[in-house]
Amino acid sequence: MSKGLKPTPFNNTYVRLGEDFYAGSSPAPVSNPELIIFNRALGDELGLADTHLAAHDSAAIYAGNVVPEGAEPVAMAYSGHQFGHFNPQLGDGRALLLGQIESPDGTQRDIHLKGTGQTRYSRNGDGRAALGPVLREYLVSEAMAKLGVPTTRALAAVTTGEEVAREQLLPGGVITRLATSFVRVGTFEFFASRGDLAAVNRLADYVIEHNYPACHDAPNPHLALLEAVIDRQAALIAQWMQLGFIHGVMNTDNMSIAGETIDYGPCAFMDHYSHDQVYSSIDRHGRYAYNNQPSIGLWNLTRLAETLVPLLAESTVAAVETAKTALHVYRDLYEDYWLDGMRQKVGLRTPHDEDKALIEELLDSMAANRADFTLTFYYLSQLSMDSTHHDNEVRALFDAPEQFDVWAMRWRARLQKDNGDDATRQSRMRAVNPAYIPRNHLIEATIRAAEDNGDFSAFHELHAVLQKPFERRPQMDTYMLPPEPHEVVQQTFCGT
Q: What are phi and psi of 391, to 5 degrees?
């Protein structure tokens, strides 16, 4: 390790909750770790510039071979409803929380290694991560950050020099990720299912202190916490829907209490628009299909509310009614966040009663015509209010272009009510409608090059493109395009 560097200033608040919340564990060393990428911009943002975590020879840390000074590696305990069925014992089976650090802006961040070997919660798994899922999570989580979506962040990725056994032998990797919290809905379920009300109370107070400090001074802090989490989840899922993002495995153990997108396993962005699109190979009945995500969000939040009921009021009856009232607001919150974001995507500045119907008509037409989700909105942002001169690009996405023409006439009439100019509206639309997303076939190509040939050039090129998703660069136009028929990815896999 490089000399003259400062230790990372860890402040390990989570371990102070008590040993019931985790299992102490040490990463299992790997044979030949090599750094693929270090997120220097994020490192600088976190104040890591002069620490061992930013050293040029830090692959050993990011592989788990060396535990940085001040870290206290633990596997976090949690339960979860997986595809609707409760599993009382999950926990970090291939990941370790190193600890918490405080950013210069005062924000606490959890540092988490994923792929570091077996823990108490591995359930006979090897505790390792294949290289492909590591690259997918790095690309997609960092793309989501640039798209403005709350998310875990990727700090580093390494190869291990070892193979992991899945359907076949695959090269191994480890990803280092950060979050404002890795506490999940399933963390609350873990203690509630055991009847440990004291631990639920301790956990709730911890989350309030570190993630929702404004709730501390509310008349009922635990109710305020529930309401705040409901609000954040409604806003988050609305953003997913506005981008055509499908999480793929919305189990309660994959729902962050902090309202960030977490656990990028079989996730995917849609190519052509379909209401009921599913990519995840393990979602055999479409529970987590695209259009089901808002309702699953509510289902998961209801599970959270159940764990908090004893903290909401002295009377169980009163507490249940309080929780129901809080949950009842979710659908309206989601609808407002979704409609506001969709208005921005189609260039509407002031709300009108007809807006929702207009937007839904476009989506229905896109679905019927298999129009590409991302490109439809991107090309729409290039159009004029009083001219169809530039309509050809978006029309070409529709099997029956005349259906777009009918909608576009209604859209242009609606734009006139805002009394704005084209240039200003187009600029606003381009700020929310990306040209580049991490398309499934592009991710698959980077994984194939890395796994099959040890070539990371495609990964680095795609990552660079995704860092500026709203800025079209003509030399990068191939990254905008939907897959050719032979490139279509039908299924995505979680990699466990």
A: -75, -15
Taking every pair of C-alpha atoms in the chain, what is the biggest distance, in angstroms?
67
Task: Find the radius of gyration of the CA atoms of the chain.
Answer: 23
Q: How confident is the model at residue 9 (pLDDT cuts 50, 70, 90)?
A: confident
How many CB atoms within 10 Å of residue 292? 18
Q: Tell me, what's the pLDDT at 387? A: 85
Secondary structure, 3-state, 46-64 = CCCCCEHHHCCCCHHHHHC
Task: Using alpha carbons only, give the angle 457, 458, 462 rounded to the nearest 5 degrees.
Answer: 120
Distances in Å between the alpha carbon of 442 and those of 240, 374, 446, 458, 465?
A: 20, 15, 6, 9, 11
Mean pLDDT of 447-453: 96
- Residues carrying an active site annotation: 253
Residue 131 exposed, middle or buried by CB count within 10 Å (0-12, 13-18, 19+): buried
| 3-class SS of residue 469 | coil
pLDDT digits (tens, 9 = 90+) for 112-162: 999 999 999 998 889 999 999 999 999 999 999 999 999 999 999 999 999
Are 176 and 35 members of one domain? yes
pTM for the complete prediction?
0.96
Same domain, 483 and 444: yes
Rounded CA gap, 308 and 303, in Å? 9
Crossing angle between the packed helical segments 197-211 and 293-312, to the nearest 10 degrees? 120
Distance in angstroms (rounded) separating the CA atoms of residues 249 and 265: 8
Residue where a domain stops, chosen among 139, 163, 182: 182
